Amino acid sequence: MLLKTDINIIKKFGLIVLFGHCFTGMAHANSIDCTQPKHASQKQYCSKALDEPREKLDNLFLTAQLITDAPVRLLIDTQTLWYNRIQQCKNLDCFKQQFELRHEDLNIYTSMNQSLTQHFLKFENGHFAASPVHLKVHQLTKDRIKIEGIAYRNPNNRVETQTIPFLAYTTPNQKTEITDNENDCKYTFNYSKALLSVQTTQKGCERFSGIYRLYD
Q1: Which of 7, 19, 70, 72 has the fewest C-beta atoms under 10 angstroms from its C-beta?
Q2: Is the pLDDT score of 107 beyond 70?
Q3: Architecture of domain 116-215 in CATH?
Q4: Contact between 176 and 153 (Cβ < 8 Å)
Q5: How far is Cα of residue 71 from the mean position of the Cα atoms in its chain?
Q6: Superkingdom of this entry's organism (predicted)?
C-alpha cells in the first residue's frame, strides 16, 4: 500500500514528465529562432512590434498541449504549418493578422471537446501539402456527421481570399459520397486505417482532393 508521501512523489514525477514532454513539443514546433533570424521575414517576425503576440502564442500553445484532448502531434504539426505560412508575409499587418488567426485556433483546441472529432492534414509525397489543407470529421450525434475543412492560400491575399472553406453533413452510413455545400463540389471519401483519400472529377474542386493523414 502506497503512503501519502509516495503518492505525492509519483504525482510530482508525473508532472515533471508531462511538462518535459510539452516543452519538447514546443521546441520541435518552434522553427523560428529569434536569437538568429536568417532573412527579412524572420527579422520582422522577431521585431519588437510583435513581442506581445509572440509571447501570447507561446503561452497559448503550451496551455493547449496541457489541457486539450486533441492529439498533441496535431498541435505541433499545425504550428509548423503556421510558421511556414507566416514567413510568407510581406508586411506587418499580415503578420499581426496571422497571429490573431493562430491565437483563435489554439483557443478552440483548449475550449472545445475534440474527443468526437477526427483531424486530417493533407500530405503529398510524404510531406505536408504545399498548399495546406485541414479536414475535421465531427460526430455530432449517433446519426449525424459534420465535415468541415479549410484550405490555406497566400496570407498576403485579402482576408476573404486567404482560405477556402469546406462544409458537409452526412451520416455514418453515407460517409463516402460527400458534397461540399460551400462550393457545390462532390467528392468520394475513402477511409483506410490512418489515411483518407479524397477524390473528385469536377474541375475547380481539386483543392481538397488528395491523401490525408489521420491524427488520433
Answers
A1: 7
A2: yes
A3: Beta Barrel (2.40)
A4: no
A5: 10
A6: Bacteria
